[in-house]
Specification:
The chain is α/β, with parallel strands linked by helices. It is built from 16 helices and eleven strands. The strands form two sheets. Strands 3-2-1-4-6-7-8-10-11 form a nine-stranded mixed β-sheet. The longest helix has 18 residues.
Amino acid sequence: MDYYCSKKFTDLYVHVQSRLLYNCCKAYPERINLDWLEKNPGQLFYTKTMLQDRRLMLDNKPCDSCDFGCYKYERQGLPSQRNKVDAYYGTITDIQHPLKHLDIALSTDCNLTCLYCDPEFSTSWHKDIETNGTYDLATRKTTGKNWATLWAKMKQKNRSTGTKFFNLLLTEIKLAKDLDSISIAGGEPLLNNNIDDLVKVAGDKKITIITGLGISDIRLENFLNKYKNKNIIFKVSCETTGNYFEFLRYGNKWQNFLQKIKKISDHNFKIRFGATITNITLLDFHNFYDMFGKDYEIVINPITERPFLEPYVLDETSKSNFSKWYENNKQFDKFGVMSNICKPVASKLQIKDLNKFILEFCKRRNIDYTFLPKHFLHWLKISS
């Protein structure tokens, strides 16, 4: 097995609210020491752990941080983030290679409770867990009792600490002379007023805003007008249409979403879509592709962290329908990550958890699931 990944030498993901560093976005995080960073400006990308991990990769040895998001899935024959890495800079041997791309998650503030998400990334999810309790699922430990501990670590206890880290991060961006691009995410980044400081300090660097568009029309309009001359790309989270969209991205309405897409386009900003591929996604992805695939880039992200939502946890009819469609439309899948996405066989535990999760998710929100295909619901033993 080849353990090398160029992302480890070029990319950094920072979660401002929790003061965590991920190198790269799928790696297990480390907590940043603010005193160390203040004394060592310009070194955020060169912590002791990061340098050690790069040395291991160059020796073709596994590093623990990458087992969390990539290696363990590859050993099971599943897709990982590394499968999608385009080694634009070739093989890098310098462990002090300059930072090229920075991902920033400002906070977990978000108005949506997307089906596949968690309190780690959405305050709406946190409110759900806090109000209604955890989801009792055997294959998804993160929605169990561990959430109370995890959230306690994530939640900011001192706003001054958060502000200090954010200001240090702005300094790091100024000092990163070779930095090409910055992606800003959340939660929902367009809800966070600190986004203005990031856009300002980014200068002429390429900026990508990763958004679910769970914001008001007025707030979006104000942002578009304020930064109409900036080099900004909107990477919009979407992968289905109509009822499926409103189910997967609960809190957003399909027609309102389409109006926002048109508004962004009318303001001459570039749009690409970030499609999170779950089993539910595959039931309607063909309609989404028919609507947007010819005019927009679609970035594919198969889910791996939620075992019962993995794409292969589907009935055979649904698998066959998607596979036939994919064979005729696979040109969009640049890295071929969806070519064998339906082949694994779901465990009984995954199927049982999917049943429980859909019923509980809908019950808590008083929403209907009967629009889902009958053969899929029958397979799940939700309806006859």
